[in-house]
Structure formats: structure tokens, C-alpha cells
Write a structure and sequence with these properties.
heterotrimer, A alpha/beta, B alpha/beta, C alpha/beta, A: alpha/beta, Aldehyde Dehydrogenase, Chain A, domain 1, Aldehyde Dehydrogenase, Chain A, domain 2, 2 domains, six-stranded mixed sheet, C: alpha/beta, five-stranded parallel sheet, three-stranded antiparallel sheet
């Protein structure tokens, strides 16, 4: 169109002012953060026996948020004893229908208090409020709601099998989805009649503690859900505790292996959700604009702090340049900044240590001769931030192609044929996730049968649902969480006798 | 003669009125919908909101397309177009008024001397189901009567039965018929069945010479939606990359609230760039939207919730 | 009485569809309760473990790629051939001191078990997989993935069923196996190679090693290309150590004891979930 007599300069100014999006900050006042948090054992909040505390930091600005009790072996003992008592006296023999009601209540309470949880999650963890509001908290509630409904239907969990609870479950959750992982873990455990001792990640303990408070609000009997905050030593004490009948862990492969060793003697039942190096395979017939969105969701969602992140892009050679052009333009649009700003797309890196680790990987790749492309948007001056990053010119043997970076860093390789795509995608010790973008249905099915991954997203990525079993192959861990298949991880099965 | 062929990457259009073959990207519906939903839910506050509201007013094609339209109704609407808020004369007029062909002269006289354009629907609007020469005659007549812009409908029947050449050639003929006026081609996306078809229709309409592609007639229950707007925006971007030509976007039907309008501005800004946030390249075809924009601007100005009944009726 | 001299059998390993002697050239004398020498059975070494795992890895993918119906038919073929060899196998158990009735019952149970798992192959997916009602426009499918290469610690005192009770469900689910048994099970384990070899089971899908658990299982538990180890027949004293060794590559550790039910089937497979959008 040609120019009209409209006032063009004024229009252009309006357009700029509009598109800069003035800050739209979610208020902090909805959540009352206390200066100090204790352990939640047997329905009581209390200090660690030795009085130890640690500080939880706000990644957006590096400032101290609160002091949190640091549980030691003695505190784990107390928590396991409380859980055992609650298991034997209340929870195990409670009708499933009654157990369900508590979980339904918790789901509803979480929905009622969703904004409070979302804000606290973002403050403590650094993830964008849009994600904690639209993904973490609603999905956490959905997990509670979904599993509540199973509590009185456990006879249908596995055909021909009676399922009974296992006992006291020790659960150790990571910092990337602090609340969601807690809900993901406690919901099936409690629905199946087990009691829980939970050890949330030390950098993000606050929403787990708030959830314990919410459980009390729901009337959950004391001792059914206990929270012992602390770092690695606390988790190790829990995993190796002789009173724990089952351990469920989400975190790094390295720690997962340590837990496997620690539980070997007793043969404690184990679910491990560990690391990944997910491949995102894009064929030349893919819907490119949407594939770009899938790639962005796959690696920049939650700053790339996602075990199933699509951290490797495998693109068919014929479209590599075009796809990468689009991707480079797209990452310029990602707004990196204050996690509490509703328009922030990429928030803060969870901790200074993690930021250094990510930098290390990217620097090493650059030193190795890889091309590193980063968003040119300015980063906040304070706090832990890393720009969306695309690394090309890789052969596949570099650390950035093999190791889990756990940050907003995409490693790009190309392929020619389906078979080569599968071979490259599977050339990893991990096996958690994979993605396929193509318009050809039979190719999706062929690929998904061959990609060595516990979850395959076709023309999508990073989708989660409580009804959908999630978990890894190979060194990404074992056991499934979610769905009917996830229940059996929290049941002792025996054949139904006629 | 236009032909559509397929290679490993999707559809290629050849023989269209541009120099190079055009690639039509496949569309994945779900990812498109989700991206669109996220774009239109951008949180637009404070000065950005005020700017967006004012910008939206500047981009409105204030429209009346009723059987009961009269010269009096058109004059009243044109008065609103020139002064969107009688309480705030600093507010810029809308982009255009949009009327049926019989009322073009009336509208032309009413907005004469102002920056407000006259747009006319023509070519057997809204179905397009009449003979081509009649449609072209209607287009020429609207331009003769003073229309600066002509909104025609794409031949959905031909598109859905695979006669892409008919779709293309009719639009090309319409482009000739409008002469120096602007051609805005309505895809009527609610009848196209899939986003793939929306993208294909967009590319054909642009290749045939449309200055603007437009979502809808407003006569169907389903009109402009965020994913359709995104799909067409991506087509406009692709077309620009492949041909170097700039094409405008008009969202018509179903855009009733200021919140929707701000969402669409965000969608366009993040897909096509802020260069597209100008009435030359972007329009809202709407009747009731203007009222809500004005009410929201009043609220931003005064901090008090305004009374809708105070607004003039057009 | 005929004066014909009997042709005695050499009891060898079964690796990759062939019957090698142990790479170590070691054998173990198997004797009757009265001390009479029955045979020098090949004693597998760590290098036989290595070869067997390599053979299993090479065969696993195409085995898993066969239809469950086909795998079921081959398992049924194992049962058929086993039935024909019943007297021989029972005799080999009797020879090491198993009472005749017990030996006969063991072989019959093994045949029936093979039939059970034959009929399981094309049920597994329906029993374990699912279509999941996710909150979005997706076809969300959970389906079965074999573990890959499974090491099976078969009980030395479990007879024929002790071996096939682990081998059958594992291969039913699309895995390739390296099974280890020794002691009183050595003769039948070796003979089972002949059953498997004549049952249309592709070479490498089933590998049978006669030897000492304490010697061989650590190598299997440590092996990075082994995806699972079933410790049903592992000596109690070494089970914890073997579990600890699985940590290095996080191979799955199970102890199914060959129970003929869904738990065993589930232990030999994992779940892959595929999200496919259903929208236009």
C-alpha cells in the first residue's frame, strides 16, 4: 500500500511505545514470605534438631529471601518415624474413597491459592510468572486431582493384580519445577496409600513448604506428608534410610546413580527421573513456523532447566539454513528479564552455580570452533541471566552435544535421511525425550518407534499431563510417573486369587 | 495459468503474477493456535496500552454492511469516523469507512477533505457468487463513485474445488479493475476448512496483486481469530521475503473489544514487526470495536469507569 | 543287548545361534549323585559374556521389529520342540539327581510356560499400553518398548523351567537375552540351546551360558551394553553387590522369578509415550 495522509511519525511512535510493552509486574504482596521456615514433621513445623539453617536466594536479583531449616540424619529419622506411624495407624487402612477426598481438597485449595503459589514459585526459582501461572501451578493441581480419583480404583491399575501400598516413600525433588515435581511425586504416592517424606531441592524449598501448609489446611492427617528441607546430605540420608520402603528421585543422572548404589543393599524400590539430551528432529516438509515454536518451547521453556528439554536440534540439511534463519530471528523476540514481569519469556537462571556451568559449556564449544549465536537483547544487570543461545558447526562429539547443559542453549546438527536422524538422535547415554516435526504421519510413527526415548512429541514439545506416563530409558532413569502406568510404581502387586 | 505442485517441502505455486515460484509453507494447527494464544495474551499496560488503543483507533475501518443501511446511517458513521470521541478531539480519525457500493458517494462526501478513506465492498459481497463481468463492473463502479479501497471476496468455491487458476485470475482481474485504488481481498477464512487452506489462499491472493488480505466478510459466525491472523501474518511475511512486496492485513469480524485489539497488535508486531502497526498495512474491520476503544481511552485518561451510554450512536 | 557304542554329547555354550566351547577352554565336570561322570560342560568366561552380549545386541533390534504374532509363533515353536525333547531333558535332570516325577513335571511346566508366553506376545501391548486422556487435542499413546539386552540369572536349581521361565517372557517382549545357569541346571541349559536353535529363534536372540554365577554375573552387571539384569537366580550373597553395579549405566534390576503373570511381562519392558496432535 502507498502512504496515506495519516500522521506517519506519530503512528510510528505509537507503534514503538506499544511494542516495547511497559513493565507488567505481578505483585509480590499476595504471598507473605516469612523470614524463617522450619521442617514439617508429623504435622508440626519445627527447627532442625541441630538448629542448622540455609538461605534461599532469589535468582532474579541474587538476594536472600528466607532462612530454611537444614535437616540432618536425626531429622530424617523423625520424619520417617512419623511417616511410619501415620502409615500404620491412619493412611494405609483408610478407605481409598476417603484418601481421595483429601487429595481432591488439596487440588482445589491449590487452585484457590494458585496466584500465591505462582508468585512464590517465581520468586524462589526464577522462572517467568507466565509459566508458573499457566503451567506449573495448574499442572500441579491437575496431578493432585487426577491421582485423587485413582485412590478408590486401584484394583484397575494393573489387570489381574491387587495393588497394596508399599509403605513409607522417600521423595527427592529438583529445583526446576519445584512445586510441580512435588505434586507429581506425592499425588500418586498418597493416592496409593503410602506416606511420604519429601526432600525438596535446596535452592527452591518454599513452595513445597507452602504445599505442606496447604495439606494441613486440607486436613491431611499429621505424618502423612512430611517435608525435610536441606541439601544433598539430607537427601542422601533419606535415600539410604532403612525405614524407607521406596525412593523416588528426580534430578541429575550423577545423583541418581549414587542413589542406586545407596539403595542396592536393601533393594529398596526405586523410581529415577534423571537427565536427558533430547533430540528435536525437523524434516524438510515440516511446518517451519510451528517447528520454530516447538524448538523454542523445547529449549527455552523454563530457561532450558528441563530434564526432557529438546537441547539438540537435528535438522534435515535442505532446510537447515532457512530454519536457522527463522530461529535466530525468533530468539530476538524472546524477552529475557524480570521473572515477575508477565511478558517475560525467559527468566533467571536458578542459581549462580548453574549460570557458571552453562557459561562453561558455551565457552568450551566456542573454543572448540563452534559458532555461537545469542540473542542481542540486553540482559538485566543484576541477578543470574543467560541469553537464548544457538550453537552450530558441531560434529556431535562435543560436550555440548552430549552432556546435559540444563540451560537455554541449543546444539544444532544436520542429517540427511530418516535412518541417520534416528542414529544421531539415539547416540546418547540418555533416553528421556525426543521430538519429530514432519507433515507425514507414517514418518512420525516410524520415527517414534525407533527414537530411544520415553516420551516422543510429534509436532509439539514439552507437553505434560497427569494422565500421560512420563519417564526415561537408559541413563535417563526408570519408572514412569503419571497415568495408569505410573501408579504401579507406588503399589505392591499380587495376583488376584480366584 | 497457475499451477500448484508438491515437492518434499510442500506446495509450490507457479505461473502466478510474480516472477518466482511461490512456496506455501505447511501449517501445524495446534502449534499455530498456541503461539497465537500466547501472543494475544501479552500483558499490555500503562503507556503501551494507551499507545495501543490510540493506534487501534487509527487502524479501524469503521464498517456498516447492513440491508437497512441508509444515507443517514452512513453520514452518522462518518461523523464518528472523523471524531471517534466527541469528548477528545485530539484523538486521530479512523483509517477508513467501509460501506456497500450504493452508499460510496454518500460516504465520499461525508469524509471529503479528511484523511479518512472510503472503502467499498464489491464483487457480489459476501458470497461472490455472480458472474465475473458483473463483479468487475461493480468494482469499477465503486471506484468511479470515489472509493479509495475496494474489498472483494476470494472465490472460495473455486479454491475448494482446486481451480486455483480461477481464484488467481479473478483477483488479478479485480486488481486491474480497481486501477489506482487499493484492492483488499477477503479470504472468508471461516469457509476454508483448515489453516493450510488459509495459507494457500493468502499466497494466491497476494500473488494475484491484492494490496491487503482480509480475514472475513463478517457475515459468518466465525470470523477473525488469533490463529487465522497469525497464519495470514506468516504468509504475508513469507510473501515479502520471496517477492520483496509489502502486503497489508485486515482483520474483520469478531473483533469487538479493546483487549482483543491490543492482542492482535501484539500478534502482528511480533510476527511482521512494528512496521506493520500502521493503517497503511493493518486494519480492523469493525463496527462496535471503536466504542470500546474510546471507552478504554477515557478510562486511561480519567481513571474512572465511563458510562457506555454517553457515546454517540452512529 | 546291543554292542553299539553310544555317541555321547558335548555340552557346549549357545552364543549367536552357534555352539562354541568356552573361549577359556574350561569345562566343569557334571556328575551323578553317585559320582559317575556325566559330562564336561563348557564353563563360560568373561569373554563368552562379552561375545554373548555382542550377539544379543546384534539380534535384538530386528527381533523387536518382528510382529508380536510372529514372536508368539516362535515361542510356541519352542514349546513344540521342547515337548519332543521332554524325555531327554527330564533324563538330564534325573541324571543329576532330580527325582523322575519332579523332573518330568519340571519339563512339562516349562513347555506349558512357553505356551503361556507364546500367547502373551500379542496381548502385552493391550495390557500394558494405553491411550491417555490428556487435557488437550492430542492422541496420546503409551506403548511397549523392550528393554533391549537382558541378562538373566537363572537359578541353578530351577531345572528347565528355571531357565525358560526367564528366557520366554524376556524374548516375548522383544528382548534378546544372555542367560546364565550352572550346577544341576548345566546339562539342561546346554541342551536348551538345541531346542532354541531348532525353533526358528533367530541366532543371537537367546544366548545360554553355563557357568558360575558368582564369576559371570558381575561382568554382566557391569556391562554397559546390557540394559537389564534379572537376578532371580543370583546367589543371595551377591545380589546386593550386583544391584550396586547396575548403577554405572543404570541398567534395570529385576527379580521376576519367572512368575507367569503380568508383573513378569511388565518387568521386561518399558513404556514410551507418544504425543500426536489431533487438529487441523
Amino acid at each position: 500500500m502507498t502512504t496515506t495522509p495519516h500522521d506517519d511519525t506519530a503512528t510510528a511512535n505509537l507503534a514503538r511505545t506499544f511494542a516495547d510493552y511497559a513493565p507488567s509486574i505481578e505483585g509480590r504482596d499476595i504471598v507473605a514470605i516469612r523470614p524463617r521456615y522450619g521442617l514439617m514433621i508429623d504435622g508440626e513445623e519445627r527447627d532442625a534438631r541441630d538448629g542448622a539453617v540455609f538461605s534461599t536466594i532469589e535468582p532474579a536479583n541474587g538476594e536472600h529471601i528466607a532462612e530454611v531449616a537444614e535437616g540432618a540424619a536425626a531429622d530424617v529419622d523423625d520424619a520417617v518415624a512419623a511417616a511410619r506411624r501415620a502409615y500404620e495407624t491412619v493412611w494405609r487402612d483408610m478407605p481409598g474413597r476417603t484418601r481421595a477426598k483429601y487429595l481432591f481438597r488439596m487440588a482445589r485449595l491449590l487452585q484457590d491459592r494458585s496466584r500465591e503459589f505462582a508468585v512464590l514459585e517465581t520468586i524462589d526459582g526464577g522462572k517467568p510468572i507466565r509459566e508458573s501461572r499457566d503451567v506449573d501451578v495448574p499442572l500441579a493441581a491437575a496431578h493432585l486431582f487426577y491421582h485423587a480419583g485413582w485412590a478408590d480404583k486401584l484394583e484397575y491399575a494393573v489387570p489381574g493384580m491387587t495393588g497394596r501400598p508399599i509403605g513409607v516413600v522417600g521423595q527427592i525433588t529438583p529445583w526446576n519445577f519445584p512445586l510441580l515435581m512435588v505434586a507429581w511425586k506425592i499425588a500418586p504416592a498418597l493416592a496409593c496409600g503410602n506416606t511420604v517424606v519429601l526432600k525438596p531441592a535446596e535452592t527452591t524449598p518454599l513452595t513445597a513448604l507452602l504445599l505442606a501448609e496447604l495439606a494441613a489446611e486440607a486436613g491431611l492427617p499429621p505424618g502423612v506428608l512430611n517435608v525435610v528441607t536441606g541439601a544433598g546430605a539430607t537427601g542422601a540420608a533419606l535415600a539410604a534410610h532403612p525405614g524407607v520402603d521406596k525412593v523416588a528421585f528426580t534430578g541429575s543422572t550423577e545423583v541418581g546413580k549414587a542413589i542406586r548404589r545407596a539403595t542396592a543393599e536393601r533393594g529398596t524400590r526405586l523410581t529415577l527421573e534423571l537427565g536427558g539430551k533430547g533430540a528435536h528432529v525437523v524434516f524438510d516438509d515440516a511446518a517451519l513456523d510451528q517447528a520454530v515454536e516447538g524448538i523454542v518451547d523445547g529449549i527455552f521453556f523454563n530457561q532450558g532447566h528441563v530434564c526432557c528439554a529438546g537441547s539438540r536440534l537435528l535438522v534435515q540439511e535442505g532446510i537447515a539454513d532457512e530454519l536457522l534463519d527463522r530461529l535466530r530471528r525468533r530468539i530476538e523476540l524472546l524477552r529475557v528479564g524480570d521473572p515477575l514481569d508477565k511478558n517475560t519469556d525467559v527468566g533467571a537462571i536458578n542459581s549462580h552455580a548453574q549460570l557458571e556451568r552453562i557459561r562453561g559449556f558455551v565457552d568450551e564449544a566456542r573454543d572448540d570452533g563452534a559458532q555461537v549465536h545469542q540473542s542481542t537483547r540486553a540482559l538485566p544487570g543484576k541477578g543470574f541471566y543467560f541469553p537464548p543461545t544457538i550453537v552450530t558447526g558441531l560434529g556431535g562429539s562435543e560436550a555440548i552435544c552430549r552432556e546435559e547443559v540444563f540451560g537455554p542453549v541449543l546444539a544444532v546438527q544436520t542429517f540427511r535421511t530418516e535412518a541417520e536422524a534416528v542414529a544421531r538422535a539415539n547416540a546418547t547415554r540418555y533416553g528421556l525425550s525426543a521430538g519429530v516435526w514432519t507433515e507425514k504421519g507414517s514418518r512420525i510413527l516410524w520415527m517414534s518407534q525407533r527414537l530411544r526415548a520415553g516420551v516422543v512429541w510429534a509436532n509439539s514439545f514439552n507437553r505434560f499431563d497427569p494422565a500421560s506416563p512420563f519417564g526415561g530409558l537408559r541413563e535417563s532413569g526408570f519408572g514412569r510417573e503419571g497415568g495408569r502406568q505410573g501408579l504401579q510404581e507406588y503399589l505392591t502387586l499380587s495376583p488376584v486369587t480366584a | 495459468m497457475i499451477t500448484a505442485s508438491r515437492d518434499s517441502r510442500g506446495i509450490v505455486l507457479e505461473g502466478v503474477a510474480v516472477d518466482t515460484p511461490l512456496r506455501v509453507q505447511p501449517v501445524d494447527a495446534l502449534a499455530l493456535q498456541e503461539r497465537a494464544a500466547r501472543l494475544v495474551s501479552r500483558s499490555v499496560k500503562r503507556e503501551s496500552k494507551v499507545a495501543g488503543l490510540e493506534l487501534s483507533v487509527r487502524c479501524v475501518d469503521l464498517t456498516t454492511l447492513e440491508g437497512a443501511d441508509t444515507p443517514g446511517k452512513v453520514r452518522a458513521m462518518c461523523a464518528r469516523a472523523l471524531r471517534p470521541d466527541p469528548d477528545d478531539l485530539s484523538l486521530h480519525p479512523v483509517a477508513a469507512v467501509c460501506v456497500y457500493g450504493a452508499l460510496v458517494a454518500e460516504a465520499r462526501d461525508a469524509v471529503a477533505g479528511s484523511p479518512v478513506k472510503v472503502a467499498s465492498v464489491a464483487g457480489a459481497f459476501p458470497s461472490g457468487q455472480s458472474h465475473l463481468h458483473e463483479r468487475l463492473e461493480e468494482i469499477r463502479r465503486a471506484v468511479d463513485d470515489g472509493a479509495h479501497e475496494v474489498d472483494i471476496v476470494l472465490n472460495r468455491g473455486a479454491l475448494l474445488s482446486g481451480r486455483l487458476d480461477v481464484v488467481h485470475d479473478e483477483i488479478a482481474a479485480a486488481k486491474q479493475a480497481v486501477g489506482h485504488a487499493h484492492l483488499k481481498t477477503i479470504l472468508e477464512t471461516g469457509e476454508l476448512g483448515s489453516y493450510e487452506m488459509v495459507r494457500l489462499a493468502s499466497m494466491i491472493a497476494m500473488a494475484a496483486g491484492s494490496d491487503v488480505i482480509k480475514t472475513s466478510t463478517g457475515k459468518l459466525p466465525v470470523s477473525a481469530t488469533p490463529p487465522v491472523a497469525l497464519c495470514m501474518s506468516e504468509a504475508i511475511r513469507d510473501f515479502g521475503e520471496q517477492t520483496g512486496r509489502v502486503v497489508g492485513l485486515k482483520l474483520a469480524g469478531g473483533v469487538r473489544t479493546a483487549k482483543q485489539a491490543l492482542g492482535y497488535l501484539a500478534l502482528v508486531a511480533e510476527t511482521l514487526g512494528t512496521d506493520w502497526l500502521t493503517p497503511d498495512r493493518f486494519r480492523f474491520g469493525a463496527s462496535t470495536l471503536l466504542n470500546d476503544l474510546v471507552l478504554q481511552l477515557r478510562f486511561q485518561r480519567t481513571g474512572r469507569y465511563p458510562r457506555p451510554g454517553d457515546l454517540p450512536v452512529d | 543287548m546291543s554292542d553299539r557304542v553310544e555317541v555321547r554329547k558335548t555340552y557346549k555354550l549357545f552364543i549367536g545361534g552357534a555352539f562354541p566351547r568356552s573361549e577359556s577352554a574350561r569345562t566343569t565336570a557334571v556328575t551323578a549323585p553317585d559320582g559317575t561322570l556325566l559330562a564336561h560342560v563348557a564353563t563360560a568366561s568373561r569373554k563368552d559374556v562379552r561375545d554373548a552380549v555382542r550377539a544379543a545386541r546384534g539380534a535384538q533390534e530386528s527381533w523387536a521389529g518382528r510382529t508380536p504374532y510372529n514372536r508368539g509363533q516362535i515361542l510356541y515353536r519352542i514349546a513344540e520342540v521342547l515337548e519332543g525333547r521332554a524325555a531327554q531333558l527330564a533324563g538330564e535332570l534325573e541324571a543329576v539327581g532330580v527325582p523322575a516325577a519332579e523332573a518330568r513335571a519340571d519339563v512339562e511346566a516349562a513347555v506349558d510356560g512357553a505356551v503361556y508366553w507364546a500367547g502373551f506376545a500379542d496381548k502385552l501391548e493391550q495390557l500394558v499400553g494405553s491411550v491417555n486422556p490428556v487435557a488437550g487435542p492430542f492422541l496420546n499413546l503409551s506403548s511397549v518398548v523392550p528393554m533391549g539386552v537382558c541378562a538373566l540369572a537363572c537359578p541353578d536349581t530351577g531345572g528347565v523351567r528355571g531357565v525358560l521361565g526367564l528366557v520366554c517372557p524376556a524374548i516375548m517382549a522383544g528382548n534378546a537375552v544372555v542367560a546364565v545357569a550352572g550346577g544341576p541346571a548345566a546339562l539342561v541349559t546346554s541342551t536348551l540351546g538345541e531346542v532354541v536353535a531348532t525353533s526358528d529363534v533367530p541366532g543371537g536372540v537367546v544366548n545360554l551360558l553355563t557357568g558360575d554365577h558368582a564369576q559371570l554375573l558381575p561382568w554382566l552387571a557391569d556391562h554397559d551394553d546390557v540394559d537389564q539384569i534379572d537376578l532371580s537366580g543370583a546367589p543371595a550373597g551377591i545380589a546386593a553387590d550386583l544391584r550396586a553395579r547396575t548403577a554405572e549405566n543404570l541398567k534395570r534390576a529385576s527379580a521376576t522369578h519367572g512368575a507367569e503373570d503380568l508383573r513378569t511381562a511388565m518387568a521386561f519392558c518399558e513404556i514410551r509415550t507418544v504425543w500426536h496432535p489431533a487438529s487441523i
